[in-house]
Write a structure and sequence with these properties.
By secondary structure, this protein is an alpha/beta fold. It is 40% helix and 18% strand. It is built from 8 helices and 10 strands. The two termini are 26 Å apart.
């Protein structure tokens, strides 16, 4: 197997100096990042610092908007009407765009965060909203999801994503974080899953083997051992014949 694969991480979510150090180490090992822009985490200063760090490492940048739920870190569904949610998501994306404009960097993609990502993967109306507010950016989400369908219907570019550090179910959804083993903790198991997903090979889910067809792989920066995972994943991917490179804007 030869080719290239994007290695991405969700960034700008740290709350202390230790988290900032982890993200700095991780940034040097990835090819694209999705930056929290105020909905679940992040503020103007963390966005600016993360954008500048990405710029220094030539890492592609995207927005990582979420339900406006800082207390729940965007990892719970909330009761919110479409108009209010749309306004919040646009505000989040615009806040990051302003900083990117100042740094003369383009916004490569939009990737919903947390439960918004999962909800949009199966809710056609919510997926349509994500497509509407993403402007000209590539939309990143699960393969064969409502989010992909909404992007295609809107003639928008879409990039399918797989997760290095999360346990899947046989329907190719992620095991809920409340379930035991939902976050894969073993570094080598994460690296093996990265190589299998990139190669289109079968790998173990919670209830049976599955395959995914993706163009980018995600490492969560808040998972313990994130930088070590990135190093191990890069080694496994290189051994499988892949180069690590940011995805190019895909045709709609």
């Amino acid at each position: 197997m030869t080719g290239s694969i994007d290695l991405n991480a969700d960034m700008g979510e740290y709350a202390d100096a230790n988290g900032a150090k982890i993200e700095a180490d991780l940034m040097a090992l990835i090819s694209s990042c999705s930056i929290a822009c105020g909905g679940h985490a992040g503020d103007a200063e963390t966005m600016r610092q993360t954008v500048q760090l990405a710029k220094a490492h030539h890492v592609s940048v995207g927005a990582h908007p979420s339900y406006p739920d800082r207390d729940g870190f965007g990892r719970r569904s909330i009761d919110i009407d479409r108009e209010t949610l749309a306004a919040s998501l646009r505000e989040q994306i615009d806040a990051l765009q302003e900083i990117l404009d100042a740094e003369k960097i383009s916004m490569q993609h939009v990737k919903p965060h947390g439960v918004l990502y999962n909800d949009a993967a199966r809710d056609a109306m919510l997926a349509q909203l994500i497509a509407e507010i993403s402007k000209d950016a590539v939309i990143v989400g699960p393969p064969d999801s409502a989010l992909e369908a909404a992007a295609r219907m809107a003639d928008r570019p879409f990039i399918a994503e797989g997760f290095v550090d999360r346990l899947y179910r046989s329907d190719r959804s992620l095991t809920p974080r409340s379930s035991p083993g939902a976050v894969i903790t073993d570094i080598e198991a994460r690296a093996a899953q990265a190589a299998a997903i990139a190669s289109g090979a079968e790998f173990a889910s919670a209830d049976g083997p599955i395959k995914l067809n993706v163009q980018t792989l995600c490492i969560h920066s808040d998972s313990p051992g994130a930088a070590e995972t990135a190093r191990a994943a890069r080694n496994a991917l290189t051994a499988a014949g892949f180069s690590i490179a940011a995805f190019a804007p895909a045709p709609a």
